[in-house]
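Translate sequence into structure tokens.
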Amino acid sequence: MKQTLLTIFTCLLILAGGKDLRVLVMTPTPQMHCENCENKIKKSLRFEKGVTKIETSIAEQTVTVTYDARKCDAQRLQAAMKQIGYDTKVLSDKPLTTNKNNSVQKKKQ
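Result follows.
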């Protein structure tokens, strides 16, 4: 339910305009091992200006952050991760767009 509401909210932000949303996917070192690791990352990143969505995956060892590029950037998010003890490698940093059906998708580059 929360995921659906967050997706709807993200779509509304895009449709409202004025946002330059991007999706950053990075992998942390040391690896995430448990829910506490995920919560520590989410707790830290949620206070960064412009962050609208944070997803973590222990199985894939990824942290995916949707953010407004007008308020934040990948370097700032990596610095926030560094402050809590995680070095990061950026796997992708792509613009977020909408298709004709107004559903959110990552823009291919």
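Note: The chain is about 35% helix and 35% strand.
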